[in-house]
Design a protein that fits this description.
The protein has 422 residues and is of the alpha/beta class. It is 30% helix and 22% strand. The strands form 4 sheets. Strands 9-7-5-2-10-1-11-14-18-19 form a 10-stranded mixed beta sheet, sandwiched between helices. Strands 12, 13, 15, 16 and 17 form a 5-stranded mixed beta sheet that branches. It is globular. The two termini are 23 Å apart. The structure holds guanosine-5'-diphosphate, 6-O-phosphoryl inosine monophosphate and magnesium ion. The site of guanosine-5'-diphosphate has 20 residues, from helix 1 and strand 3.
Length: 422
């Protein structure tokens, strides 16, 4: 009766969606526990591309139930668009998609506040996806939020209006920004029709009953560890706990149920938005990583910043999450590099350090280890053990530095382009 977890160990976009989709058929239920439509999880099903923002990545697996947990912030407009897009391929979607009655709702003025607040920050901006995530979590912790279950009370419209009024007051502190509220509100109210078609329940009891019956549950993280509101590169983070601990609060599951934690990391690093990124490359190597890895945001289309794999950062993420198994993705992106590097320590205050400091912006330099490239495609290989020795050396270094086994290696975006250590 365990809960396994898949989450990102870097700054998001590690390829979590693909791995969740691959492993989902081993589970009865897949759950999202935090974040919202700032996430973009890409899956390829029969060569067709799908990007999921709110719906868990287990939805394409027949017989698997998918839960949007209480820790998620949900925008009914994005949800409706997403459902319209995947419904032709998943006709039984409404039978298998469940929504917590405690999930917080993003309303249009949350997005307006996000826009106004980011605009006012100028050069200090977070680089938010502007999906209303931060303002919605602010209302949650400020105890003003509107939850899915509220939609079933007779006075929910007045709750909506009073929240909107609070937002108007809040917006007064920022310089004016353009936002077509009337249009967005119409979309929002119309989209509730789709939301109401989902099975809306107390998901904590549902999950507890499933665990009692011996069923397996998979929790799917969004964003990545370095975007965690407590442990990430604050203030350049998202507004939720993206780490394993967030599974417990975001689903109502006790810590003792958690078994495996599969941490996903790219074979290099990327970041979209502002904030420190010690291994970032501003040269033609970074450019090549972006091109080979097609590093453009799944949600906003923004170019992602690129750099080498940062092992100091990765080890920190492994500690925070209790990672039992590493999954290294996008190894194929390095196929044509003559030299590959990993960052093994930081230089700061005239000292070398193996720890992520309070303020990552103060890191002055990084020390790297160099590995020869393999200069060949990995497509023909069907096991980790038979890969070129150069790949083996790189993976061995990751394992020995982090004291964690690389159990999965992703060699392409397709569902089955995955090697599993036996
Ligand atoms: P997520 O947010 O963690 O689910 O990741 P995204 O979907 O935002 O970004 C990962 C991108 O890399 C997507 O375009 C995936 O299709 C793609 N991808 C995932 N795994 C691999 C891989 O092993 N190799 C390559 N080349 N692309 C991959
Ligand atoms: P997935 O689940 C990458 C980043 C934004 C910004 C910061 C705050 O696809 O890995 P927010 O919209 O939360 O206010 O943005 O976090 N960010 C992500 N970066 N992948 C994501 O999700 C992200 N979700 C948010 O770019 O820097
Ligand atoms: Mg993504």
């Amino acid at each position: 009766m365990p809960v396994d977890v898949i989450l990102g160990l870097q700054w998001g976009d590690e390829g979590k969606g693909k791995i969740v989709d691959f492993l989902a058929d081993k589970y009865s239920i897949v759950c999202r526990f935090q974040g919202g439509p700032n996430a973009g999880h890409t899956l390829y099903i029969n060569n067709k591309k799908f990007v999921l923002h709110t719906v868990p990545s287990g939805i394409f697996r027949k017989n698997v139930f998918n839960v949007i947990g209480n820790g998620v912030v949900l925008d009914p407009i994005t949800l409706e668009k997403e459902i319209q897009n995947i419904l032709p391929d998943i006709p039984d979607l409404f039978d298998r998609l469940l929504l917590s009655n405690k999930t917080q709702l993003i309303i249009p003025t949350h997005r307006w506040i996000d826009l106004a607040s980011e605009t006012a920050k100028g050069k200090e901006k977070i680089g938010s996806t502007l999906r209303g995530i931060g303002p919605c979590y602010m209302d949650k912790t400020g105890r003003n939020g509107l939850r899915v279950g509220d939609l079933f009370s007779p006075d929910w419209k007045s709750k909506y209006e009073s929240l909107k009024e609070k937002h108007f007051q809040f917006l007064k502190q920022f310089p004016a920004t353009e936002f077509n509220l009337a249009e967005q509100e119409k979309l929002w109210f119309d989209s509730l029709e789709t939301l109401r078609k989902l099975k809306i329940i107390s998901t904590e009891y549902y999950l507890h009953n499933a665990l009692s019956k011996g069923e397996n549950i998979l929790a799917e993280g969004a964003q990545g560890t370095m975007l965690d509101v407590d442990h990430g590169t604050y203030p350049y983070v998202t507004s939720s706990n993206t780490i394993t601990a967030g599974v417990c609060t975001g689903l109502g599951i006790a810590p003792s149920h958690i078994r495996k934690v599969i941490g996903i990391a790219k074979a290099y690093c990327t970041r979209v938005g502002s904030g420190p990124f010690p291994s970032e490359l501003h040269d033609e190597v970074g450019e090549k990583l972006r091109k080979e890895g097609n590093e453009f945001g799944s949600t906003t289309g923004r170019p992602r910043r690129c750099g080498w794999l940062d092992l100091v950062q990765l080890r920190y993420a492994i500690i925070l999450n209790g990672v039992t198994d590493l999954c290294i993705t996008k190894i194929d992106v390095l196929n044509s590099f003559d030299e590959i590097k990993s960052v093994d320590s930081y230089h700061m205050n005239n000292q070398l350090t193996l720890e992520v400091p309070f303020n990552m912006s103060l890191i002055e330099d990084t020390l790297t280890q160099s590995f020869p490239g393999w200069n060949q495609s990995l497509a023909e290989h069907s096991s980790i053990e038979t890969l070129p020795s150069q790949v083996g050396k790189f993976l061995n270094h990751i394992e020995s530095y982090t004291s964690t086994q690389v159990s999965f290696l992703s060699t392409g975006p397709g569902r089955d382009e995955l090697l599993i250590k036996r």
